[in-house]
Amino acid sequence: MGPISFVMVVMACGQGDSCKPMMTMPAAYRSESACLADRADILGALSRPGDKLVAECRSERTNNGASAPVRSSGKARPLA
C-alpha cells in the first residue's frame, strides 16, 4: 500500500437532505487540510441560487506510491 491522497466529491442535496454524488473534482490533494481549504472556493464557483451542494474530502490509498486515480463524472450540471 502506498500513501494516501484526498479527493473532493461534490454532492447535490434534495429534499430531506438526501445527497447524491454529482462529481469528483479533477485534483488530488496530499492532505485533508489542503482539500478542506479549497472546499469553500469550489462550492462557491459551482453553486447557483437554489442549489444545495455539499463537498466531502475523501481519502484514497494509492498502490506502490503511484498517484491515486481520480474519477470524474464530468462538469457540474443543473440540479433537478
What does this molecule look like?
There is one protein chain. The protein has one helix at 32-46; strands at 4-13, 19-29, 53-61. Strands 2-1-3 form a three-stranded antiparallel β-sheet, covered by helices on one side. It is of the alpha+beta class and 80 residues long. The chain has one domain (4-61). Helices cover 19% and strands 38% of the residues. Residues 64-80 have low confidence and may be disordered.
Layout: helices, strands, pairs:
Blueprint: E1 4-13, E2 19-29, H1 32-46, E3 53-61
Antiparallel strand pairs: 1-2, 1-3
Give a brief description:
The chain is α+β, with helices and mostly antiparallel strands and 80 residues long. Helix content is 19%, strand content 38%. β1 and β2 form a beta hairpin.
Low-confidence stretches: 64-80
**Which of globular, elongated, flat, extended, rod-shaped describes the shape?**
elongated
Beta strand %: 35-45%
Major β-sheet annotation: 3 strands, antiparallel
The secondary-structure element order is EEHE
Mean pLDDT: 77
- Going across the major beta sheet, what is the strand order? 2-1-3
Please count the helical segments: 1
The helical percent reads 10-25%
What's the number of structural domains? Answer: 1
Structural class call reads: alpha+beta
Region (Disordered): 59-80
